[in-house]
Amino acid sequence: MSDKPARRNILSFITDALDKCLVGISILVGAVLTINIIVAVFFRYVLNSPIYWADELSLYLFCWATFLGAALAVKRSDMAAVTFFLNRLSGRANILLSMLIQLCMLFFSIIIGYYSIIWISSPSVMNLLSPALSMNMWKLYTIVPISMFCMAVFSIEHLIGFIPSLFGKRGGTAQ
C-alpha cells in the first residue's frame, strides 16, 4: 500500500460538500420536528389548547427528513438491501453487480426527479395551498427533486469509483 493520499476529483469535493449540506439540513429538520412535537403535545394535553397547524408541520418535516435520509443513505451506501447474491460473488462479478445496482439507482433517481419537477411545476400544485400552514405546496414538495438530484450525483460518484476496481487498479470503492 502506498503512503500517497488518494487523488480526489472535483466530483468528490462536490459530493462531500453536498453531504455536509444535507447533514446540516437534516439536523435542522430533526430539531424543528422534535421541538414542534414537544410543544404540540404540551399545548394539547397540558394547556388543553391544541396548535392547529402542528400536525401538518410534523408531517411535512417528517417527509423532508425521510427524503434527506434517503439521499444520505445513497451517498454512504447504507440503503436497505438484500445482499444474498452480492455477498456470494467475488472479484469482478461483485463489482459488476454493484455497478448494476448503482445504475438502477441512477435511472430511478433521474426518472423520479424528472417527473417530480413536472408534477411540482403543474398548475394544480403551483396554485395549491396547504390547509393549515397556508403555504404553497410546491415549496413543500421541492424536497423530492432535490433528493433525487443528490441521489443521482452520489450514484455517479459510486459508479466512477468502481471503474478502477473493474480494471484491476487500486482506488475503487467497494460497497
Automatic annotation (TrEMBL):
<feature type="transmembrane region" description="Helical">
    <location>
        <begin position="21"/>
        <end position="45"/>
    </location>
</feature>
<keyword id="KW-0812">Transmembrane</keyword>
<keyword id="KW-0997">Cell inner membrane</keyword>
<dbReference type="InterPro" id="IPR007387">
    <property type="entry name" value="TRAP_DctQ"/>
</dbReference>
<keyword id="KW-0813">Transport</keyword>
<feature type="transmembrane region" description="Helical">
    <location>
        <begin position="140"/>
        <end position="160"/>
    </location>
</feature>
<feature type="domain" description="Tripartite ATP-independent periplasmic transporters DctQ component">
    <location>
        <begin position="35"/>
        <end position="161"/>
    </location>
</feature>
<keyword id="KW-1133">Transmembrane helix</keyword>
<comment type="similarity">
    <text>Belongs to the TRAP transporter small permease family.</text>
</comment>
<feature type="transmembrane region" description="Helical">
    <location>
        <begin position="57"/>
        <end position="74"/>
    </location>
</feature>
<protein>
    <submittedName>
        <fullName>TRAP transporter small permease</fullName>
    </submittedName>
</protein>
<keyword id="KW-1003">Cell membrane</keyword>
<dbReference type="Pfam" id="PF04290">
    <property type="entry name" value="DctQ"/>
</dbReference>
<feature type="transmembrane region" description="Helical">
    <location>
        <begin position="95"/>
        <end position="120"/>
    </location>
</feature>
<keyword id="KW-0472">Membrane</keyword>
<dbReference type="InterPro" id="IPR055348">
    <property type="entry name" value="DctQ"/>
</dbReference>
